[in-house]
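Readers outside the structure-tokenisation community will struggle with the description of the input data as it stands. What matters is that the chain and its backbone geometry are given together, residue for residue. For illustration, here is how one protein appears when written out as sequence plus structure tokens:

…
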Amino acid sequence: MKLALFDLDHTLLNTDSDHSWGEFLVNEGLVDPIRHRQMNNQFYEDYKAGQLDPIAYNEFVFEFLTQHDLAELQQLHQQFMQKVIRAQMRPQGFAAIEKHRAAGHALVGITATSDFITAPIFHEFGITEVIATTAELHADGYTGKVAGIPCYQQGKLERLAQWLNGRQVTESWAYSDSINDRFLLEYADHAIVVSPDDRLAALAEERQWVIQDWSL
């Protein structure tokens, strides 16, 4: 298998989908604006600093999911796609994905953000295989808990190993913007650093990784 791994937030997207979802809920009047925005912003700062507690953050995000049925959540996500996400999808991301598809490479989206938020976004990019932090789901809806290992920092490699399930990778590419993905980039044969944060930019210079600017 030749494998191309794509991060989502600030890589394929010009925004952070998790943080943007929180802002969307505030702007739509669906959550307490003061509490939700304050917590959403603090968790986002923790993420950028590489100090995020992924369980605590995702349980905060999943609170809203537990309060609504699946049909309503799907409708809200469609509105989120229309009002927020589609305008933030980077053309260079589509181009990179199509380059790998044309070469016959396996395409995988891999993100710390939950599958509820990200799977439909990856699907619009043409990526159907998604490894994400999993929101636990029972027959009657979301439980508010994280199922399994959060797909964050080294957890991405653990989740990737589970997905591979022993299949051999002969060559790999990884695309990301964040220092949180240094482990994923180190894993790959070809690391492509996309519009990186400052710490990742410094590491990329040191490691002589490819740096590309996909920002809109």
In short: The chain has one domain: 2-212. The chain has ten helices and seven strands. The domain at 2-212 is CATH 3.40.50.1000 (Rossmann fold). The first strand starts at residue 2 and ends at 6.
